[in-house]
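explain this chain.
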Amino acid sequence: MAVEIFSDPARAVSIVQNDSSIMFGGFVSAGSPSNLIMALHNSGQSNLTLMANNIGLGDKLDLLCESRQVSKVIATFAIRASGGRQSNFEQQYHKGEVGLELVPQGTFAERIRAGGAGIGGFLTPTGVGTMVAEGKEIMHVKGKEYLLELPLRADYAFIKAYKADTQGNLVYRGASKNFNELMATAADCVIAEVEQIVEVGSLRPSQIHTPGIFVDRVVQCDPVEIRWE
């Protein structure tokens, strides 16, 4: 199926329904699909499950909590270490209004990779003997304990790239590659926010990080300035 090209992020995210699960690329502000997040915020879709490295630390995802659109977050960093100003997510979490599944960062990345590769799970020693192990199967291999971690997939992935061509091939720039490339393989529908759209043939094959076969929708947006809170 040919990739769909949009000029308006609101139209690009209009297919998202209530009760959806969504992966969001980015590491704090680097590579965060901020225009898509704000369009989703304006759409009012609710009871969403968010999967992201972080929420509420210099990103726009906390807007979705502010508007009560979130039911659960799966993340590696969601609660600040300091006792200072709390994000909207933190306030709602402490009141029991949203759920949180805390995942070590390496495990988070590998679960997404497994979801994209169709792998049924993997073993890791990370989290054994901690709260991370609660409710998970523990397996013994050569006398050592491992957690069985299951893959992560989502209904949608919102990702940020630098360039796309009109067939949806994506190029990331610098640290913005982070989780975007992995998440593009692990969702039923991938929506990419990009700064530039070029014609097919403008990108060398060696430049392409995410092949267009993984991408469903592309929207060209101006970069969003994100300030640390």
Notes: Helices lie at 9-12, 34-43, 62-66, 88-94, 105-117, 180-183. The mean pLDDT is 93.
